[in-house]
Amino acid sequence: MKKRIMLGNEAFARGAYEAGVKVVSSYPGTPSTEVTETAAKYDEMHVEWAPNEKCGVEVAIGASVGGVRSLSCMKHVGLNVAADPFFTAAYNGVTAGAVILVADDNGCHSSQNEQDSRYYGKSAGVPVLEPADAQECKEFIKKAYEISEEYDTLVLLRSNTRISHSRGIVTLEDRVEKARIPYEKNIQKYVSMPAMARKLHIAQENRMNQIAEDCNHMDLNRVEMGDTSIGIITSGICYQYVKEAMPEVSILKMGMINPLPKEMIRKFAAQVDKLYVIEEGDPFFEEQIRAMGVELAGGKDMFTIQGEYSANMIRAAFGRPVAESAVINDAPNRPPLLCAGCPHRGLFHVLDKLKKTVLGDIGCYTLAALPPTSAMDTTLCMGASITMAHGFEKAVGDSKDVVAVLGDSTFFHSGITGLINMNYNGSKGTVIILDNRITGMTGHQDNPASGRNAKGEEAPAIDIATLCRAIGVKNIVEVDPFDLEATEKAVKEETAREELSVIITKRPCALIVKQPDIPHLVTDACKNCKQCMKIGCPAIEEKDGRPFVAAERCVGCGLCATICPFDAIAAADGKEAR
Amino acid sequence: MNKVNILIVGVGGQGTLLASVLLGNLALMKDYDVKLSEVHGMSQRGGSVVTHVKISEDGVNSPLIELGDADVIIAFEELEAYRWLPYLKKGGTMYVNTQQILPMPVILKQAEYPQEIQQTLQAQAGQVKAFDALQIAEECGSVKAVNVVLLGAASNDLPFREEEWIQVIEENVKPKFIDLNKKAFALGRQV
Predict the structure, then answer these.
(1) Pick from A169, A311, A324: which is nearest to B34 by CB?
(2) Residues A486-496: pLDDT tens digits?
(3) How many domains does the structure of chain B reveal?
(4) Which of A160, A248, A320, A325 to mutate to test the interface with B (most CBs of B within 10 A)?
(5) Between A and B, how many residue pairs show a Cβ–Cβ distance under 8 A?
(6) How far apart are CA A143 and CA A148, in angstroms?
(7) How far apart are CA A253 and CA A238, in angstroms?
(8) Does A325 touch chain B (CB under 8 A)?
(9) Does the domain formed by A520-571 have CATH 3.30.70.20?
(10) Interchain proximity A331–B12, CB inside 8 Å
(11) So what's the pLDDT on residue A578?
């Protein structure tokens, strides 16, 4: 059998492929993105980027009703967006297997919170599986389809950053094609009206009770008996940390984490002297196990609900030695930055200069909140820039000093409804849409305006200006954000206007189009005013007290040359960048 | 070899991910167990990035290297070498590209770039091999080859033969960059 090194996320995609999945619909979100990106490489599956997670889940449910195995993937906060179809589809069950993959972000590596998605499974009443390495990512997603079809239920597959973004060795197997299950109309099952829903809720309770009993005998859950003085109940990545820190202890490793295998837990508890629960995030297992009346020697009283765990954290909690190590506590932070050549930099330079209050959003441009640009006041969730700007305007009674800023993909995700709301409810505000032709922060996925689909094929591209006009916005201005004069003029005029406006900044992401790549340099004309250092370009440093362009990082975009009041920055070849 | 832990650290955009892909495939070729853990999302945005590579003949559990448990650290930048030094095992080896990339807090004078990085590394590490990998990469034809230059240097300490390295480069690098990377590897190995 073939073996490959695979990212956890690639292994999920491989598992979906082997399981005969036919339809995948997702919205990108770190750390889940590569599942769908990898799935798109298999010709046997229809794989698409949906405009948001709610669309993705509904497409997957539609495909299941239509008789083929389907998948929708998202990051933890994406499941909030998709919660509406998720909770009701949990009643309906499936025709062909349907799996929702959610990747949490313990440690907030690239997210706005550390929400624990395990609760979603319990709250909605669906089984939840959680793998512990790349091989299990592949095995568990295949298992998830079997469970989905055997019990007629949606299945939630839970990952997190460390599982999704770790590579390991995965054994490949062949794809097994599944014949489409012929569609049969069944309004009792699929029309969620109150009379049906009450019955469906009973069916759901019954099947979850059945799974709660059966999971005590599933090989997803296993006991590894060792030294019986310590017993650990754990799952996912924490299992690996426990194995590394205390290889000799007894472990109950759960692969199905909702419902819990209560009979196994009681039996395991009786076999060990002291029982502990080790789980990242909230005390999801612990509270349920304590509620069973099982006595625990430790749980969240020993471990935090914050961030990621490690083998050393477990060693320390159990009083075991950790390796000696050097102590470094004066290394300056290195926060991420907008890239050299990033089109957003021009706009945020202008917003900073005009001292606007910026209601921001989720994307690369959130980085503009950091110094030196410091041109963002709020970031909440996808699309909230527009709606919060509207609320802010209603609070202060004026919108002249306020703008909403969001990216093209975020606008399609959940900004459009906010703009409809502004237009409908009498806003005079200004919304700035950063059209860089791609979904940037998650690693350059296509979107409804990019002209390509997830498979890389040509696709119709939405014209954002036309869309805004259709909503009813009368004032729409398109500018190149590197044309600072035009950008400044647009922001000044549109914020002053007593009507709703949309400014669309149009310039592609610096990482998807070839940059001039002619490094710039600071000439003798430099008066050391350091204006160029206020744009936060990673290529501009200070050397011997003066600005200096690091040639190997400069992409030759020329924004610094435009900003310099003394014409003291020039392309190394003497030509203008644009 | 029973096991070897390698930490690859640098600044987002320097190509640390290719280095980990090559190491992972080498381990696979030799039928060792291997786990790698990476930073995505921020990887192209100039932040501090780290890849953990754990290779073992007897199986790897946690994909993360703990403090004081890296046999080798490959650092693409001096401050990152300094930041991640606590992960180096007592007596471990540090390969350092002597390039300095100032982080924004330093450029803004909110923080200072540590002055005596090399002295600290020398005092704490078993062995430090510091050299200008950027210059060697430029000689090979691309600054982007810094990653393979550094791997070439570290290859002397890692349990793989030269021809195995060459094979894994040929299998995992885009065809038009193979020669460039083979040259970068060879020059790095001579450092």
Answers:
(1) A169
(2) 999 999 999 99
(3) 1
(4) A325
(5) 174
(6) 8
(7) 9
(8) yes
(9) yes
(10) no
(11) 43
